[in-house]
Amino acid sequence: MVTEQEVEAIGRTLVDPRQPLQARFRALFTLRGLGGPSAIAWISQAFCDDSALLKHELAYCLGQMQDPQAIPVLVDVLRDAHQEPMVRHEAGEALGAIGNPEVLDVLTQYCTDPVIEVAETCQLAVRRLEWLQQRGGKPEPAGPYLSVDPAPPAEERDVRQLREVLLDETRPLFDRYRAMFALRDAGGEEAALALAEGLCCGSALFRHEIGYVLGQLQHEAAVPQLTAALAQAAESPMVRHECAEALGAIARPACLAALRAHAADPERVVRESCEVALDMYEHENGPAFQYADGLEQLVAMPVLVGEEGPQGWSRAPALYEEYRPPPLDSVRLPRHVLYLLLAALLVVAVAYAIVGHLVKDLAHDLADWAFGLKPDQGAAPRELRPGLEGEDLEELDSELALAWRDGEDTSAAREGAPEETPMRSPRRPSVAVKDPPTWSSFWRLP
Q1: Residue 57 among known ligand-binding residues
Q2: Which of 151-160, 224-233, 421-430 bottoms out in mean pLDDT, i.e. has the lowest?
Q3: What integer best gives the mean pLDDT of the chain?
Q4: Judging by beta carbons within 10 Å of its beta carbon (0-12, 13-18, 19+), is residue 291 exposed, middle or buried?
Q5: What is the mean pLDDT of residues 234-245?
Q6: Does residue 209 have a known ligand-binding role?
Q7: Which of 41, 179, 196, 223 could be disulfide-bonded to 165 (CB atoms 3.0-4.6 Å)?
Q8: How far apart are the C-alpha atoms of 136 and 141, rounded to whole Å?
Q9: What is the three-class DSSP state of 89?
Q10: C-beta neighbour count of 199 within 10 angstroms
């Protein structure tokens, strides 16, 4: 059970301009999920902010909550000509989403508003309320996306037929919206590509809704068209903003590149939309269960609310002070995994130092046993066995001197003889060896 103090803490985050925009968005969607009079009061209080994007989302969330208590503030926003067109449009759409027929007169009044996006939105809202009345109070069919849409999905299920209705600008806007939401519910690549074609239609409101629906669908086939629409500086800011948020929801690497490219866009609503979309990208690719994590972010704080209630609150320490989204390009391993990797490398190095040269010597011995010694190994001098001294050494010297002299005499006798096939010259005796008495490779002195 959520307490009033927790709702208040989340509300303070929402209305605090010192907080990062992505933190305020998460607080907003947390309040939307909680619902109730306190949540509506905090959301309504934030309409005095200077961010058109935030106020647009405030109106959207109040409409999705479908609480009649939000009607007065939404009517005030719709009537306020000083509010940005995208904010007034979203207020009109939210009034239609709540579905209370008491707002029909207000919506009908603004069906001819000089701001075309506001006028078209109110026309759609009136058609939706009339459609609800024709159903005789029956509940709306629940769709797969759990959102309250400005028009119900069409009953047609053939993607080609729905595409024709969607792109036919001679048809009523309400019918085209119904085809749009039917394509979204159908899903798949063909439906995503048909919806993406709608980004080239004439109505900015229609293109804005196409971006929103593609964000719900989250199909990467529409990424090139969304990226192109976002990159068009001449496009309506409300269209570019929805394309940016759709790319954040789709959350593919190509989306990340497009969002980073426009993170410093001169149009504020586009710039802020990219900031929020990057936070959505992080959420979609992270382990968090839900985007609206305002309750999880609550920390121990002093008493937040005085006797005056939400209208008399004082600033509290920021919940997200010095907040920075973690980098997405690097993958950080836990410290214990790094230690295990280092230990494994150390074990391999020590094992190679101890066993490696033994294995190498064993391989050489096996090769000598199987194929015999190399020629240079057979002629290599052998060391004297230890223990030769005294008379043994004198006798060995005499024998070596006689062998050397015999070798010189033989060479002199051959100098005058006719040249024959050269014979192998006798090996010069070594001080270390004598002719082996046996075939053994280990020559031993007598």
Answers
A1: yes
A2: 421-430
A3: 82
A4: middle
A5: 96
A6: yes
A7: 179
A8: 14
A9: helix
A10: 22
How many residues appear in the chain? 446
For residue range 372-409, what is the model confidence (pLDDT) as tens digits? 766 655 555 555 555 555 555 666 667 777 766 666 56
Q: Which helix (H) or strand (E) segment is 343 a member of?
A: helix 335-371
Q: Tell me: the pLDDT tens digits for 317-342?
A: 444 444 455 555 555 667 777 788 88
d(C-alpha 164, C-alpha 150), whole Å: 20
pLDDT tens for each residue of 53-93:
999 999 999 999 999 999 999 999 999 999 999 999 999 99
Kindly list the domain boundaries of the chain, sorted by start residue: 4-312
Joined together, the tokens standing for residue 337 give: 């995994």
pTM: 0.67
CA distances to 7, 11, 289, 318, 394 from 16, rounded to whole Å, are: 14, 9, 25, 8, 107
Tell me whether residue 82 is annotated as binding: no
8 Å CB contact between 191 and 161: no
Residue of 290, 289, 278 lying closest to 323 (CA atoms): 278
Which residues have CB under 8 Å from 95's CB, separation 6+?
Answer: 63, 71, 74, 75, 78, 103, 106, 107, 125
Residue 63 token pair: 């409409």
Encoded amino acid at 12, one letter: R
DSSP 230-269: HH-TTS-HHHHHHHHHHHHHH--HHHHHHHHHTTT-SSHH
CA-CA distance, 69 to 54, in Å (whole number)? Answer: 20
Say if residue 235 carries a ligand binding annotation.
Answer: no
Q: Annotated binding residue at 336?
A: no
The counts of H helices and E strands in the chain are: 19, 0
Decide: 35 and 334 in contact? Cβ < 8 Å: no
Structure tokens at 439: 């075939």
| Six token digits for residue 399 | 């024998």
Structure tokens that stand for 73 in this block:
């503030």
